[in-house]
Every structure is written in C-alpha cells, then in structure tokens.
Amino acid sequence: MPKISIIMPVHNEPENILRTAINSMIRQTYEDFEFIIINDASQNNAEEVILSYKDKRIKYFKNEENLKVIKTLNKGLDLATGEYIARMDADDISFRTRLQKQVEILDNNFDIGLVSSQCYLHPTKRLVIPPINHNDIEKVLKYSVNCIIHPVVLFRRSVIESNKLKYSETHLHIEDYKLWIDMSNVTKLYSIPEPLLLHRDWNESVSRQNIWEQYYNAKNLVFESILKDVNADSEHLRQVFNEYLHGNKISQKDSIEIDKVLCEAIKKAYKDMSTDWFNYILKVINELRSNIEKQALQ
Fold first, then answer.
1. pTM reported for the whole predicted model
2. Which of the residues 18, 25, 85, 216 has the least number of beta carbons within 10 Å of its own beta carbon?
C-alpha cells in the first residue's frame, strides 16, 4: 500500500498546463505514492497526454460521461488506498518538497488530520497566507471564509472513512469548504507557514466561472456554521439570511435576532483565537452586522 494517494481530476486542461501539473507531482522528493488521475470526459487530447507517461505510480481512470468535479473527487476518495490523501488540480504546480514536508507533519502529529500550506497565485505572484494553528483555522472557516487551499491539502484517509465524510453534492462550488468544516469538528487542522503550491487564478477555472453562486453558497454555509456553533440553529433565520443575501427586505426583528447570533460568535471566537485572526473575524462579522442592519432599515 502506498503512503499517499494523490487525487487529480482532469477536464479539458490545455496540454502544456496539464503536463506541468503532472510533472510537478511525479518529480516530488517524496516518492511513495499512487497518482490517481481521473479524466472527467475531456474533449481535448488529455487522455493522450496522460497515457504518454510511463510512471508506474500513475493510475489512470476515465469517466465516460462528464460527472463534474464533486462526483469525480468522491470517486477518487473511493479509489484511494494510501494512508494519506493529497489533492492536486490539473492546472496547478506543486513545489518539489511539498509532499515531504506535509508527510513529516502528519507522521509526527497524530492529532492533526489535515495539513495545508500557503501558496502563490499565478500570474499575480500574490502570496496567500492562511492561519497556521487549528483554533484560528477552525474559527476563520466557520465564521468568515474558506482559508484552506484545496489543491495543496494532505489528509488522513482514516479521518474521512471513520467519520463517513465526503465532498457534499449539495454544496456546489464550495464542496471543499464544507468538507473542511466537517473535518474541523473531528480532527485538528494545520497549515505549514510557507508556500508549497503555485495556484493558477485564471478566468477558465471552475471557481471563476461560478463565482457568484460560490459566493452565495459560501455565505450561507458560514451563517449555518455560526448558528450551529453558538447553539442557535434556526431554519427561519437561515431563510432570513438568504433573503438578505439576495437583497430582499428583512424585518428589524429578524435583523436583531441575527445580530444576537453574530455577537455570540464574536464572544466565542475571542476565547480561542490569536489576536490578528480574531481582529480579522471581528472586522468581517461587524461589516456583516452593519449591512444587515442597513437592509432592515430600508
């Protein structure tokens, strides 16, 4: 059994970009892995490109119809046999020591179930710096934004299998975000404070093409997480928050109820977080409180 299963869906990536992604993985300094590449019914020469590699660690699978990313990722989870599972996108570039440094973290910290890292965005070269420790990561995930960079994660297969976790088909374009929140409830998360990936931020990416649906779904997920985390789960408030997101009028009474929930989230975050990331969450939540209040007064 390999130590790591790398899962990489492919769908119509240009040859030069696909080859760069594959090369960055097969040239890793850490070599004990299987590389599961799933061709999601590409209509270009992706299959020819993948089959041109003779590396025995590559395991090639092909979807006869376009299952899209969530079902393809879950197929990859089912196919994986490694102790750890790594994600990789077919348009990104992993640095050569990525797997080596991530395996070292999981091998030496049994309470950590997932490790991510910083990354550079291409072509802007902007450095994305997520929180490092679990308390900061968990609260940022649940109260503000997805701070785990999907194509650079390595996580324990035992964590998802023992807790029956998958990529959620009901959370379109934020399936990874939902999975990280679910994992944060059962294991610790960690981010290596150095960049281990070059992440392409381009107009052809799935995220860019569905940016507004991703935005609304992510905001609803955050509010749902806050409600659960402060023990105030309410279907009515979820519906009200969705009305707010779509610019519809909400009552002052509902605005006040949501404000109470958000204030409770601030109190809970304050107990556990480092100052810098607490101030980040405070800014995000206070801006949300202000916007909801303004909309209720319209």
1. 0.96
2. 216
